[in-house]
Amino acid sequence: MTKVDLTPAFLIHRRAFKDSSLLLDFFTQEYGRVRLVGRGLRNSKTPIQVFQHLNISYSGRADLKGLNNWEVKDTPRQLKGESLILGMYVNELISRLLHEQDPHFKLFEIYKKFIENLATIDSASSHWLLRLFEHNLLQELGYGIDFSCDISGSEIQLDASYEYQHQGGFVRSVAGKILGKSINQLLADDINNMPNLEQLKACRDLNRQRLNPLLGNKPLQSRALFFSK
What we know:
Layout: E1 2-17, E2 21-28, E3 32-38, E4 54-60, E5 65-72, H1 81-97, H2 105-118, H3 123-140, E6 161-165, E7 169-172, E8 178-179, H4 180-188, H5 197-215, H6 221-228
Parallel strand pairs: 3-5
Antiparallel strand pairs: 1-2, 1-4, 2-3, 4-5, 6-7, 6-8
Helix pairs in contact: 1-3, 1-6, 2-3, 3-5
């Protein structure tokens, strides 16, 4: 019998389950991604919300355990418009890339900070915030590459152009789309030091090159929302 009391968590996905219940995916601080049944919650007058920092309690004997109760440990937060889409995208990344019950303590804190910042910053900054989260996610899951030196071992030059080679790193190239300065900005992880619009797109393309092999052939549903806007 597993019994967990008041562990920090975020709800990242929910869907209908059986008669009046919900199937709930949480990203927890201590236990990683867990899936729980919220019995009778579909018609609850106080529905459990995504993007809120919670403490949850759950128990059960089988693989699919039940949510017993939760409490909100956060300020009220409701993401809308583009911020909502970005939040949904990050939640889908976590759902797809994290194994169940595999804890990632540092990533939990990175996610928490991402959600808090997403609710307060402007559109351009939110996309840079997303690029930084994607980079940190890959690093924390063990798919990091050297951002300080290129494949040959030479230090990344701020004014040089680079191409990315899958699982290898950066190669200096006059045809490269991403500047050394942008690589350095990703490494610095500073939301206040963002590249220009062209280089922000280059960082987006870089992260997609790194993420796509991990995501496989099944497309992310949230990505389609970007193109529908």
